[in-house]
Queue: 2 jobs
Job 1
Amino acid sequence: MNVASVIVDVAVMQTDRPFDYEIPERWQEVIQPGMRVIVPFGPRHVQGFVLEIKVDTEIRKLKPIVEPMDIIPVLSEELMKLAHWLTIESLCFKISALHVMLPAAMKVKYSKLIRLTGEKSLPPELASLFKGQTEIPWEEASDAGALADIRKEVKKGTIEVIYSVKSKGRKKTVRMVRCLLSEEALAETVGTMAKNAVKQKEALLAFSGRRGNWLTLKETGMSSATAKSLLGKGWIEEKQEEMYRDPHSGRHFEPDKPLKLTENQQEAIEPILATINDGTTETFLLHGVTGSGKTEIYLQSISQVIEKGQEAIVLVPEISLTPQMTERFKRRFGNDVAVLHSGLSIGEKYDEWRKISRKEVKVVVGARSAVFAPFENIGLIIIDEEHETSYKQEENPRYHARDVAIWRAAYYDCPVILGSATPSLESFARAKKGVYTLLTLDNRVNDRPLPSVDIIDMREELREGNRSMFSRTLFDKIKDRLEKEEQTVLFLNKRGYSSFIMCRDCGYVAGCPHCDVSMTYHRHRHQLKCHYCGYEEPAPNICPECGSEHIRHFGTGTQKVEEELLKLLPEVRIIRMDVDTTGTKGSHERLLRQFANKEADILLGTQMIAKGLDFPDITLVGVLSADTMLHLPDFRSSEKTFQLLTQVSGRAGRHHLPGEVVVQTYTPEHYSIQLAAEQNYESFYQQEMTMRKMGGYPPFYYLALINVSHKEAIEASSAANKIVTKIKPSLSPAAVILGPVASPIARINDRYRWQCLIKYKREPKLTAVLKEVLEHYAKQGKSNELLVSVDIHPYMLM
Ligand code: ADP
Ligand code: ZN
Ligand code: ZN
């Protein structure tokens, strides 16, 4: 008997293994590994993935597969292997690893239908339920209290219950028609038609000269009623053509040609091209300041890959998937490019995925999850801005796109390019050790100078009586740009520094009742909102603690900066980009276009403007608060500050006009700020490595973070203690266990949080014991309300 081993779509520990199902005779030829199937599981029917097909000689009573969901496998053998690897590496359920590789549209819902078999007639009380239809939704029967009667009929064979899969990923189709008449017959027919058949005549005439072509109804100008009558007469035929929802429809991309590489670029690209040609796997770290021509190297490497008949994946951070970035790929490779990002609708994403799956494109440009693009002949994987923490997924499977890229590249024997102006310490250390190959671009293309950077000590400003959020230097320079009609970018480092409400008399800070964090003040609605659990309440006008009216909001949100700027310079035109103004689809793109068209003097925003912007008239970049991130309880805070400041500075003076940068800070002496101003990556690396070595952090140690949460603080802490006791004996004396301690954010959504950080170099037993811990708590099920999670190589430590 042929048996399929299936991973079912139920993400709990007990089901995290394959289950065997019989393959019914009629699907013997159809069902293959990598396909989705519907299988019975307990009382339900669920979706599952076929892992393998086995021939089973044992006599067992297996349940049969209900039906296949795919005609061809949606996951290749390679992706199935990758899923297996992900499961082990990130300690996730196999079903999570399989799901992450498919677009959301392919996650299906099931609906039950009750259908008449037509074998015998129904008793009248049930017949009325069907109202002449052959099938009705299960819910209708259930609501009518008819399920018991229906069960009887099912036994008799009058009725069957079927499981219908509601796929969100509907293909979009368009109706096409074609004329079957010869040119003469067409003219003759039109001539002999009744006078009042105007519409039909027009419709037929639309085909003259285009006979034999498939046209959409729109192109012929006929209505569906007209089409119906022409079809009835046999004059035309029709078909449904599958259509892609094209997010770029109506946009024309002016094709461009490869640029002649500079000597420096030529040196960097040669080893890459060599590995592409030889078909060897190697990881390159391309370190080059912003504007040094990294993207041009990507483009030309991809050309080589396409020429060889292979495919390329390009990952860019979601936030820099700007139209400007994707346009460069569209211009170079035209219709060979698919783009995947969160701005697309579920349907659009599904369509892009299908283009990749059918190999109708050669290049995919996308955010993190595009690393799973279903190509089967990959020749190159590129990760731009490789230091970005958004490449790590913060939910199961907790994978890092860099690791997945390197795995896939090894499978296909092809190179990986990691590009950055500020590589992560981990990657740079690997390059220094020779694990990665370091390629360096020292200068900007055509030696355009890097912008000059002024560091302004805001304590000094305060001492000299300037209480505004703009230093005198920055303000003067903004005014100067307004006069010269040049553009300014103002950057507010908002992370860890949003506006909150505080009482000036008693110091009360409005905190979330469910989490140990202060709530963020939203001025336009006068509301307080918790960004961790979503709780909202109206902002108070008097202090709930002491009754004082001196309660007001602190912190510098982008809105507040905008207001202050308008007070000082009423005529200035500002475009503000933050979560509030970019919430709707396409708004990000629209605002950038407005700025590019010089409809504003100043672009003001948060993290999201730090990257990818490349406008010729930006000559001033102001960083309003450089150090807000430095004080977060995160060993990467200096690295993140350095990266962000370097990125932001890179926005100025990219073209013919020279650029200036003003960095305002309360800690001007900090090495991450000083060295970012000098754009001195190498010194920063040395300094930061010393700190990491002293602290015992990556890249000197690996980390594993265990998070425990429970509604009762005591339960969370005691479970965390038990876990540590359990793990300790399996670790070598070289491993360091920090904790358990209460997490920096000790409560979220009414759950108390404890954590334990393991620092290690080589612990062969670690993943096994962590898996045991997870299994142990999962077995206790939901009843005890305890949640335990493990994050290997964590990026979020709060
Ligand atoms: P990066 O990706 O390192 O920021 P880009 O590839 O975007 O750098 O290059 C910066 C600018 O220089 C772009 O406007 C690009 O068109 C231009 N450029 C890159 N390479 C060359 C070249 N070889 N010759 C002329 N201009 C180039
Ligand atoms: Zn008060
Ligand atoms: Zn909250």
Job 2
Amino acid sequence: MLIAPSILSADFGKLNQEIEAVSKGGCDFIHIDVMDGNFVPNLTIGPVVVEAVAKATSTPLDIHLMVADNSFFVDMFAPLKPKFISFHIENEIHPNRVAQKIRDYGISPAIVLNPHSRVESIEYLLEYVDMVLLMSVNPGFGGQKFIPNVLDKAVKLKELILKRNPNCLIEIDGGVNDKNINQIKEAGVDIAVAGSYIFKHPQGVEKAIKSLKV
Ligand code: DX5
Ligand code: ZN
């Protein structure tokens, strides 16, 4: 399992140390939640902070957009050269265009589904993206409870992926911990995002990351 700590739950007063700790702790990506106070009822970080994160580590960045205007935010974050930029299907009427725009910047496009969104709704997008992010909570905040029916969705999605684009990865985000990681793995997920579990782990971030590497 590849692990992407979500810095939403990090201590922003010592962000540099937090980033270094998860990088040294063996994480595979740094997950960055961009919220605009419109698509979701929360407001997080902009390119100034993400640039500081990028400088603090050589670990690839995984930018998760939760915004009303995807195209605008793609232009804003693309210069930071993340590995992935993911955007939600629920607010995008031209997803192929946005995916192509991300690819034109040399970045891997990914599509995100909220917990209620059907995997069939993106079947014909699969060949144009490198990853699908399945939300296992309603986006907006860290520390929420995992919605277990996302595991059925992951199994269904895997079937569609094998048919349409076998190289496409599956990522899961929200409420991930050491109790559900084995089921997540069995459902065919490749990358697990975890925020509060990693950054608030009593034995430190390295132990937390190791416990998710199933
Ligand atoms: C929620 C974010 C998540 C969040 C995960 O909108 O997309 O990345 O930080 O946090 P935990 O792991 O605490 O649910
Ligand atoms: Zn996220």
